[in-house]
Amino acid sequence: MTPFRYMRATDAASAVLKGGAAGARYLGGGTNLVDLMRENIETPESLVDVTGLPGGIDELPGGGLRIGAAVRNTALAEHRAVRLRYPMLARAILAGASGQIRNMATVGGNILQRTRCSYFYDEAGSRCNKRHPGEGCDAVGGFNRNHAILGASSACVAVHPSDMCVALAALDAVVHLRGNGGERRLAFTALHRLPGELPDVDTMLQPGELITAVEIPPMPFAARSTYRKVRDRSSYAFALVSVAAALDVEGGQVRDVRIALGGVAHKPWRAERAEALLRGGPLSATSFAAAAEAELASAQALSGNGFKIDLARRTLVAVLEDLSGEIA
Amino acid sequence: MTIVVNGAALDAPHDARVSLLDFLRETCGLSGTKKGCDQGACGACTVLADGERILSCLSLAVQYEGRSITTIEGLGQPGRLHPLQQAFVEHDGFQCGYCTPGQICSAVGMAAEIARGVPSHVTVDLGGEDILLSHEELRERMSGNLCRCGAYNGIVEAIAETYGAETLAEAAE
Ligand SMILES: Cc1cc2nc3c(=O)[nH]c(=O)nc-3n(C[C@H](O)[C@H](O)[C@H](O)COP(=O)(O)OP(=O)(O)OC[C@H]3O[C@@H](n4cnc5c(N)ncnc54)[C@H](O)[C@@H]3O)c2cc1C
Ligand code: FES
Ligand code: FES
To answer: What distance in Å separates residue A178's CA from the closest CA in chain B?
Structure first.
């Protein structure tokens, strides 16, 4: 690890002042950044600890929630409003990492955690366009069982590893940001980006920009929502494929629906095609299958991850069947 | 500001790179906390920070200035073992013992989470107020602690005896 300065910020304004300096990075729980620093993949000159910033979980007028970026993953998953009104979010968080890591990890850090692609982690021995733009990607022709099937490029096939973010993408969350230029809001689905020719850029954040909070709008039908994660062992493993979904049903018809997929792309994948096909249509196995088919129509397999396309389709259908069974 | 370790206030290291794990083992001489993977994957380095279980390997010591850390040495000592330490001895909850301090600290933190009603991945009713520590819940909640010797049966028995659904039911009677 290269030497660095450690500072604590107690309010967003001073955090942004410190975090905007060259070589500075924000520090949440450290469960991802400290690991990457130890591997010399991240080499910040100063760390601005933002876990002391104010902001808990607050009710918004109209029924939504505002979640401070420093809220720990455990605290978010155990909050009663989240458990009752947005169960997919509680379930997504609880499906991730371990009890210890969830106690440490913050909401801001979870959102900005970097890929777990093993070539990205192998600083000494592999080529990775995310680490060193332009040097090539060893995952494309290598062990890519865990890699992307949607929205990848020839420069990068890494996936975003978060479970929590899949639920936030489905729930129409909005991210509150603060930078030297002031404050702004961004749709959660517009925060992360696809790799294209710039795989070293994970998100649309400006340099030095701080996530101050995440807002979830009211969505009464999300009380019937869930998260299903498929992985190689039953706990403490990243997703091969995951699905967050909420289903609103009236008279055998789909009145509204939200779906996002995890483990399949460089960003949490909002399944807009599937949603559009389902909305207003019948609640049937045929329509579920057609929606899953349409969403995965553009999927592309690498040498080792073709199984994920079918897995994603089937998991999506299974989740919709579960949710409609719950309603029937 | 200082870091309180098992009740004693200590100055944080000057070099911010020092992990909480290395601080405990090298500076404080508390070698009970183990370094398995040093990357968050095994749980051997688990300690309690203000009663919450965390991984000391992924923590910088300076992050814990102003907070209180409890290690396995702080839970109990020979002659006055913590009930869970005693249960690990009685149920053969270890072979080589390398994962044991992390297992025990993790289970103590887990018991506090259960008491607070924190749900888990296998909790069926997210709206429920009370959580019973069934074997399924126990295994899921302890999945962040690996044991290379495979002493899991003894580990589960020791934790179940100390904190399990049956124990809690008996205590309530
Ligand atoms: C063994 C292991 C298993 C795991 N398994 C899973 C899993 O199954 N599912 C899953 O989803 N995750 C998993 N994780 C990842 C874990 O969820 C993340 O490491 C964690 O959420 C990161 O949060 P943090 O607060 O510790 O972030 P940090 O490590 O502190 O920060 C991560 C990044 O976010 C930036 N940052 C932090 N806060 C802010 C802010 N407010 N504004 C702007 N930038 C900020 C930092 O600069 C850094 O770049 C696992 C991790 C480990 C080590
Ligand atoms: S040493 Fe910390 S988790 Fe393995
Ligand atoms: S007892 Fe040897 S690793 Fe668990």
So the answer is: 23
Tell me, yes or no, if the pTM score tops 0.90.
Answer: yes
What residues of chain B lie within 8 A of the CB of A44, using their CB? none
Q: What is the ipTM of this complex?
A: 0.96
Same domain, B70 and B89: no
Q: How far is B110 from chain A (nearest CA, A)?
A: 8
pLDDT in tens, A283-292: 999 999 999 9
What pLDDT does B171 receive?
57
Q: Quick check: CB of B107 below 6 Å from ligand 3?
A: no
Instruction: Give every CB contact of residue B77 below 8 A, 6+ residues apart in sequence.
Output: none
In this prediction, residues A3-9 reach a mean pLDDT of: 98
Domain at A224-327, CATH from 3.40.50.300, 1.10.760.10, 3.40.630.10, 3.30.390.50:
3.30.390.50
- Are B47 and B33 in contact by the 8 Å Cβ rule? The answer is yes
Assign A313 to helix, strand or coil.
helix
| Residue A112 CA to ligand 1 centre (angstroms) | 6
Q: d(Cα A272, Cα A312) in Å, to the nearest integer?
A: 15
State which residue of chain A sits closest to B124, comparing Cα positions.
A91
pLDDT, one tens digit per residue, over A203-226 is 999 999 999 999 999 999 999 999
CATH of segment(s) A5-51? 3.30.43.10
Query: What does the domain layout of chain A look like in residue ranges?
Result: 5-51, 224-327
Q: Which of B19, B40, B75 lies at the terminal end of a domain, its last residue?
A: B75
Q: Kindly report the number of other CB atoms within 10 A of residue A217's CB atom.
A: 14
